[in-house]
Amino acid sequence: MSLYFLCFILFCVGLYAVLRKRNIIKIIIGIGIIEYAVNLFIILLGYRLQGRAPILSGDQEVLNMVDPLPQAMVLTTIVVGLAVVVILTGLAIRIYEKYGTFDITKIRRLRG
Amino acid sequence: MTILPFFIIIPLAGAFLSALLGRRVKLFSDATAVLSCGALTLFSLNVVKLIGAHKFLAYNMGGWMPPLGLSLALDGLSSLILVAVNLVSLMAAVYAVSYMRIYTEKWKFFSLFLLMLAGMNGVVLSSDMFNLYVFLEVASISGYALVAFGTEPEDLEAAFKYAVMGSLASVFILLGIALLYGYTSTLNMADISVVLSSKPRGTLVGFVSVLFLAGFGLKAALVPFHAWLPDAHSSAPSPVSAVLSGVFIKTLGIYAMMRVFFNVLGISDKVLLILMVLGVLSMVAGALLAIIKNDIKRMFAYSSISQVGYIIFALGIGTPLALLGGLFHLFNHAMFKSLLFLDAGAIEYSTGKRSLEKLGGLSSKLKVTGFTSLIGSMSISGIPPLAGFWSKLIIIIAALQSGYFGFASIAVIVSIITLAYYTKFQTFAFYGKLDEAYSYIKEAALSMKVSMLALSLICIAGGLLLLPSMRPFLQSAADVLSNGSGYAGAFLGAVK
């Protein structure tokens, strides 16, 4: 239970960074933290204490095994998260070239 | 049914080929994009015919049976959205062949465009929650890149804002999927619905509903979550704005929301009420914000929020007639809003301006643009014989039948406000005195005219979809929603 709680705190840390920070690099890091918190959560869903890898073999019976599906899902979400971070960072670099700042309160040409 | 994977294979292959050869071979990427969108449009029309005969098509990937394997599923609702997505994408691709000349690196544009199309088709066809998430991200990420395509400071700012909001939305959706998986131990939509119906309705389903409402609401730009839409849709190149506003927010937001709430989680009165209130809020706020705008594309973007409000409001009423009206409005809005964005692009192409204050008297110079945008404006504001009138009429009648007199009158008033700001757009842009500076301007290029005229023809003829012979197209989609958890039975029957 405490693991889930820590995972939730990690999620909130990321959310705080996205909502409160003014530097766009810190916002990107916040997005990354949120994604890792969700990935961790998905892994925890399939985890079992003392569980072993779910590999099927003829001569032995596996009783207590970890659910492999969340791990496969997390592999995919890590890649998706990478794509998001790459595109955000690319945008941040171009924004810095155009505006000369990373401060979102100064990047405000669009209004209303 | 082996036709289904092609909706994803064709655009993915097109994107790959145009990235590979587009730089070297001139016009290769244009041809790839137009041909693949054209093929997909034909396929989607063919699928509508198949749906009339079979009701439900499914394709098991790699021959694995669900719930273990992934499968693509197609029913009335998906076929309606597929037609809208592929038709609008075809028009936008044809339009972009000329329009994107004002940008550099056209092949990158078409590559991203096809990737976005692959994502949208995937969202519509997937019958698996995690698959839905992956396709949603494919479409969203290419969407972020396309919004920033112009690389002006405003475009980058809008794209950054959109990317942050969009990835937050995706995270909420993923969290919801994870919780649902933890509760039901399956990811297949039909299977989730079966498992949920056998379990007591705990608080977890409510929490998951809230997560999905926030996630898909952000993607659909419902009112408390709408802040990114006007920036993103007005900064993107016009063909992209047309696809984003016309079908992107509907596939990723509204379609996914409908599928998840009506067919998977099972709709409850509370969710319907929330949808209705959010719909009315979006309707009113979008219209009021649109009327004070002077930038054409920004006005259209706010108008999208308002019209999406109509669709969500109709879904919230929940009666079969309201669902029919909502889906009909969804289809119509896809057509006329993409037409209007293409028109805005044509005005910008000819004059280089987007602000209403600086335009005027263009109808004498830009005949096709003037005519098509008049059709689009009349259709969206609900002038009788055009398509938009019928869908709004059905929604309002359905609201009155269910006894929501207050909301129905708000819908009528918002429709009048819509008429007001489209009249403003017409008067300021096309009537009045022509500025000296615009005496030399030229009408848009041929391919732009073709796609604008084709879309305006659909806007004029759209009302015919209500005729008894064309009715099954909309009715089968509305039936999927009113059938609710019957989706699971239909799916399991089709994959056998």
Describe the fold and architecture.
The complex is a heterodimer of chains A (about 110) and B (about 500). Chain A is mainly α. Chain A is built from three helices and no strands. Chain A has helices spanning about 1-20, 25-45, 70-100. In chain A, helix 2 packs antiparallel against helix 3 (about 70-100). The relative contact order of chain A is 0.14. The model of chain A has no long low-confidence stretch (mean pLDDT about 90). With about 500 residues, chain B is an all-alpha fold. Chain B has one domain (about 5-495). Chain B has 19 helices and two strands. In chain B, strands 1-2 form a two-stranded antiparallel sheet. In chain B, helix 10 runs antiparallel to helix 13. The longest helix of chain B has about 30 residues, at about 155-185. The interface of A and B includes residues 38, 73 and 98 of A.
Question: Descriptors for this entry?
Answer:
heterodimer; A: 112 residues; mainly alpha; Helix Hairpins; 3 helices; elongated; B: 496 residues; two-stranded antiparallel ribbon; 2 strands
In short:
The complex is a heterodimer of chains A (112) and B (496). Chain A has 112 residues and is mainly α.
Q: The biggest beta sheet of chain A, please?
A: none
**Greatest interface by residues involved:** A-B, 31 and 35 residues
Order of helices and strands of chain B: HHEEHHHHHHHHHHHHHHHHH
What is the helix content of chain B? over 70%
Shape of chain A: elongated
Report the CATH C-level class of chain A.
Mainly Alpha
Name the assembly state: heterodimer
Shape of chain B: globular
Instruction: Note the total helix count of chain B.
Output: 19
